[in-house]
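Bumping with the actual sequence this time:
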Amino acid sequence: SAITDESLPEKRQWAPVTLEPPPPITDATNVAWSGTSVVQGRLLCVVFGTGDDTLLGQIASKIRTSRTRSSLEIQIEHFVHLIAIVATIVGLLSLLVGLLLSGPDKTLGDILASAATAFFTQVPEGLMPTVTFCLMIASKEMARRHVLVRRIDAVETLGCVGVLCSDKTGTLTSGHMTVTDLVVPSGEGVSVQPLEKGAVTAQVTRLAEGGLLNSSAKETIDGHLSGSPTEVAIVVACQQLLDTHISHAQTTAPLVFEVPFNSTNKWMLTVHSKPREEGNVRIILKGAPERVLERCKLTEHTDVAVKASLEQLMSQGKRMICVAELQTKVAKEFEFSGSSFEDTNFPTEGFQLLGLFALEDPPKEGVQEAIARMSDAGCTTIMVTGDHPKTAKAIALRIGIIDADEDTESSSAESAEEEQIREQFRTVTGVMIESHADLGEDEDADLSALAAKPDLAPEVYRFWQRCVKYTRVFARVSPMHKRTIVQAYQHFGGQIVAMTGDGVNDAPALKEAEVGIAMGIRGTEVAKEAADIV
């Protein structure tokens, strides 16, 4: 979602949130936001905010504020003040010399004119045209590389950036769920193979057939797929493996009965007839691995191998979907019924495991190399995302934002207490930020005031100092949190900060940073308007 920055749909429920401490409202599971999309189910909602009281309204109010001054503006202002002081001194000295040493042939008017000339000759009249032309040349070079510069002085500031805060979904990653790996039975164990490099064996073919038949994704008239991101990703992968379309696969094995996916069952079941074998049906079960595997007939060795593969892939931040099949024979006039394992009138145990799909929103090509080059140039990259901490941390490790080797080396030289603090602040969540939002009695105080006067809220001051020093991933954060994080690096780290993003939720941070960079292809118009560079 462009509002919440989540790469997967999040379920909503009517039950009140009873967590202690209460999560930020952006994390509440019983609140739906204007600007997000419902991909499955129905909602009956109570409207509790309109206009400026919605999340979109709050974002709009934050991007209407004045923009942070660029480093070039500050440098030119400092230079102009210096020139003004020099010009004033030169003018006064010229006037003093004229009054004391000039002959009787010079009038007071001549002396004043001479002093004024000395004063105005110090003014660099060509400074602004020269700076403008230099920036225009740089902007033209950027345009050749498909980069649009909306604020011309951002080109110079880009070279001074010390911290880059980057959104994850759609910026560091592709923004589309993709099947990356397949887990299929192999002898007494299982085989894990990448989708692109794996051979299309008989086991892979059966898994792909199950993925196409048991699917809620629909093919539109123009050939596009619609449905949840997970379903669409599985169908795309299966079509690629079998070199066929979902409509053709479902025609060859007509659907007889279906139990749709829901958040309680965590599985979806479809029954398909076999036209050439009257009375024989294929029951395909797909869903959460823990719910599907308990219905499968597995040897002890296979069970251990499957769970080991699951643990390995899930530790990389990937989502796992399991598929199993049961072939059985029913009477010609048999009518299937039921909506759960407890009330079905057909067998729901003894399934044969077909395999598992591993899905993720993969990093974009070249991202890891770009982050490494930025690190070599002295710029630190920080991931700021609304996605889940485990997913964010796994992606950060893969693309080099978190360097495991560096953490190990630094930990060996630190005290036990320092190492514990480093581990605690390795990944910071929105809940942690929300719990350190109280800046004391002064309601108008912000992080710039706190950085100047730590006594306003000593605990909050220490929290942000540690975040700036140790944190490389901020997860489950709201649009306002992203803006606060940028301010923290500006005022507590003393850094010039750039922010990259593509969603509506990135707009406040894009506006707050010295350089705001929006994605051009998949970026929202709100993000582009708030950015300096597209």
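The tokens above came from a reply further down the thread. Residues 273 and 281 are 5 Å apart (CA to CA).
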